[in-house]
């Protein structure tokens, strides 16, 4: 199952879900959407988590607020959630933005995976055909030729 859909931009621009969330709004939960934002999770190799830069978590931009940026794949589309949270009231605003750079990267990964699967299928079919041909030759048995003198 691919991580992203084939035409991410079209899905982002045309689906009501994304159109709603791409406008700055006070509460994603009002749309039934809850996001658990994780910044630089530990990777599969067990390396330590990275500390997010000010580009992703900014406490200094405005007093009493934290500005956040979180890239993710949502419903098969590469997006970035951008917004802020009031540190006293714990409310804020945010929106989704299409992540063109990551979308291109994920599309390239998906295409490479597709090509690899196609190559492996072709190799399997070639081996299978060769095996069938070998069996047919064996089933025919030795051929005897009679010659009259």
UniProtKB/TrEMBL annotation:
A family per Pfam: CBF_beta
What is the species listed in this Swiss-Prot or TrEMBL entry? Answer: Oreochromis aureus
Q: Which InterPro entries match?
A: CBF_beta, CBF_bsu_sf
UniProt-listed PANTHER family = CORE-BINDING FACTOR SUBUNIT BETA (PTHR10276:SF3), CORE-BINDING FACTOR, BETA SUBUNIT (PTHR10276)
Report the record's Gene Ontology biological process terms: regulation of transcription by RNA polymerase II
Task: Output the Gene Ontology cellular-component terms.
Answer: core-binding factor complex
The taxonomy runs:
Eukaryota, Metazoa, Chordata, Craniata, Vertebrata
UniProt keyword ATP-binding, yes or no: no
The answer to keyword Thylakoid applying to this record is: no
Q: Supply the name of the protein.
A: Uncharacterized protein
A molecular function (GO) term: transcription coactivator activity
Q: Which family does it belong to?
A: Belongs to the CBF-beta family.
Cell compartment(s), UniProt: Nucleus
Which UniProt keywords are given for this protein, alphabetically ordered?
Nucleus
Record-linked Gene3D superfamilies? Core binding factor, beta subunit
Q: Where is the signal peptide?
A: none
């Amino acid at each position: 199952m691919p991580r992203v859909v084939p035409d991410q931009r079209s899905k982002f621009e045309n689906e009501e879900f994304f159109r709603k969330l791409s406008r700055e709004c006070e509460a994603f939960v009002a749309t039934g959407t809850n996001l658990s934002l994780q910044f630089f999770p530990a990777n599969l190799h067990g390396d330590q988590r990275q500390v997010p830069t000010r580009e992703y978590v900014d406490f200094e931009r405005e007093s009493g607020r934290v500005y956040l940026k979180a890239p993710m794949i949502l419903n098969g589309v590469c997006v970035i959630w951008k917004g802020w949270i009031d540190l006293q009231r714990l409310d804020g605003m945010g929106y989704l933005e299409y992540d063109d750079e990551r979308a291109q990267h994920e599309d390239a990964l998906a295409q490479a995976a597709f090509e690899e699967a196609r190559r492996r299928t072709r190799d399997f079919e070639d081996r299978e055909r060769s095996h069938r041909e070998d069996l047919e030759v064996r089933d025919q048995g030795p051929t005897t030729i009679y010659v009259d003198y």
